[in-house]
Write a structure and sequence with these properties.
Length: about 375
C-alpha cells in the first residue's frame, strides 16, 4: 500500500471541511502547503441549504448567495408579523452553489486534493497521524475531523433532541408569495409532541422553499410531514403547484459536551466540534468564524484552545430542558420572545453577541 504525506488532512468535505480549506488557502501566511480532503460520503451529493443572518453587505460568500431578505416574518395564531431586521440581512446558500464554489478553488490549486477514499483507521504516533484508507496510507501532522458518532451522543446522559425538517421547493401557477421577507417561524400549525413550526423562504412570487420543522425527541414520519405541508400550503395559498425538489434532514439538539479534539487527537470541526447551535440548529456562521480561528492557529503554530463553558451554554441547556419536559412552555416562551423583543435583539442574542445587560433586559 502506497504512503502519501500531506501538510494538512481534512476528514469530511461538507460545510466545515470546505470552509476550513477555504480559510487555509486564503490565509496571508499560506505558502502552498499540501491539503487533502477525504470525503467518502460524497457530501456534495446531499441536497441541503444554509441560511444565516449577517450585518455586512460584503460577506465573504456574497458571490454565492442565492437569495437575501431584509425582513423576517414570525407567524402567530393571530397572524403574521413582518419586520425589517436592518442592519442584519438573512441570506440563503444552496448546496450546489456552495460546493461549486469550493470545488472550483480545489481545481485551481495544485496543492489541494480531494478524494472519496474511505477512512478505515486513524492512529497517532508522536507528532504524526497515520490514516489508513481503502486505497492508501496517509500521514500528516495536522488532522482536522468532522466525524462524529451520533449514537454515542444520543446515549450520553445529556439531553438529546432532534430538529427534524422536511420541505418542498414548489412553483405555483399564481403569484402568491411575498419575496421581501422570509418566514423564520410560523407557529400557527397544529402542535404535536414537541414544538412545531413552518419555515418559508420565498425566492419569487411563484417559487418558495416551505419546510415543516419539529423540535422533539420522537422521530416524525415522512407521511406526517407531507400531510402537514399539504395542509399548510392549502391554508395559506390555496393554489396549484408543482414540487421541484424535496429537502429532509435531522440536526442534533443536545447539551452534550463536544470536545475540541477527537479521541484520536485530531482537531474536531463542524458538528463534531459542537458548532451547531443546540437550540436553533444554525451552524454556517459559527463554522465560518471557527474556520478563521483554526487557520490562524495553524499558521501561527498554536494549539486551539479547549472549549469552555459559558453563559450561552447555560441558556441553551435551560431551553433544551423545557423543549424536552415542557414543550408547551417552550412554545409560549418562543412566541413571547418574538412578540415583545425586537427581531434584531433576538438575532444578536442567538448569535451570542449580546451583553449580560442586554440579556437581563431580554429575559
Amino acid at each position: 500500500m502506497n504512503t502519501n504525506k500531506y501538510d494538512i488532512v481534512i476528514l469530511g468535505g461538507g460545510c466545515a471541511g470546505m470552509q476550513l480549506m477555504h480559510q487555509l488557502i486564503h490565509h496571508a501566511k499560506y505558502k502552498g502547503e499540501s491539503i487533502l480532503i477525504l470525503d467518502a460520503d460524497k457530501t456534495y451529493l446531499q441536497p441541503k441549504s444554509w441560511c444565516f443572518w449577517h450585518k455586512s453587505e460584503d460577506h465573504p460568500y456574497q458571490s454565492i448567495f442565492n437569495t437575501t431578505w431584509n425582513s423576517l416574518s414570525i407567524g402567530f395564531p393571530e397572524g403574521i408579523k413582518e419586520k425589517s431586521i436592518a442592519p442584519y440581512r438573512y441570506s440563503f446558500i444552496q448546496s450546489e452553489s456552495f460546493f461549486d464554489f469550493h470545488f472550483k478553488e480545489i481545481h485551481q490549486n495544485d496543492h489541494v486534493n480531494y478524494s472519496n477514499n474511505k477512512v478505515l483507521k486513524i492512529e497517532k504516533l508522536g507528532n504524526d497521524f497515520f490514516i489508513e484508507t481503502n486505497h492508501e496510507m496517509i500521514t500528516t501532522q495536522a488532522l482536522y475531523s468532522s466525524f462524529w458518532n451520533q449514537e454515542e451522543v444520543a446515549n450520553d446522559r445529556s439531553i438529546f433532541l432532534q430538529q427534524q425538517f422536511h420541505g418542498w421547493e414548489i412553483y405555483t401557477d399564481q403569484p402568491v408569495f411575498n419575496p421581501t421577507a422570509a418566514t423564520l417561524m410560523d407557529f400557527s400549525i397544529t402542535q404535536t409532541s414537541g414544538v412545531d413550526f413552518a419555515y418559508v423562504l420565498p425566492y419569487s412570487e411563484h417559487q418558495a422553499l416551505i419546510e415543516i420543522t419539529g423540535f422533539c425527541a420522537e422521530e416524525y414520519s415522512v407521511d406526517f410531514f407531507e400531510v402537514v405541508l399539504k395542509e399548510y400550503i392549502q391554508k395559506n395559498w390555496n393554489c396549484s403547484y408543482k414540487i421541484i425538489k424535496t429537502e429532509r434532514a435531522s440536526i442534533p439538539m443536545t447539551n452534550f459536551a463536544f470536545n475540541r479534539f477527537t479521541k484520536e487527537g485530531a482537531i474536531a470541526i463542524g458538528t463534531a466540534a459542537g458548532m451547531v447551535k443546540p437550540t436553533t440548529g444554525y451552524a454556517f456562521n459559527r463554522i465560518f468564524r471557527d474556520s478563521i480561528l483554526l487557520a490562524n492557529d495553524y499558521f501561527n503554530h498554536e494549539i486551539p484552545a479547549a472549549f469552555t463553558h459559558n453563559r450561552f451554554k447555560f441558556y441553551d441547556r435551560l431551553l433544551l430542558q423545557l423543549l424536552k419536559h415542557s414543550p408547551a412552555k417552550a412554545l409560549h416562551i418562543l412566541k413571547q420572545l418574538f412578540r415583545k423583543v425586537s427581531y434584531q435583539q433576538v438575532l444578536c442574542f442567538l448569535d451570542e453577541d449580546s451583553s449580560l445587560f442586554q440579556e437581563a433586559l431580554l429575559f
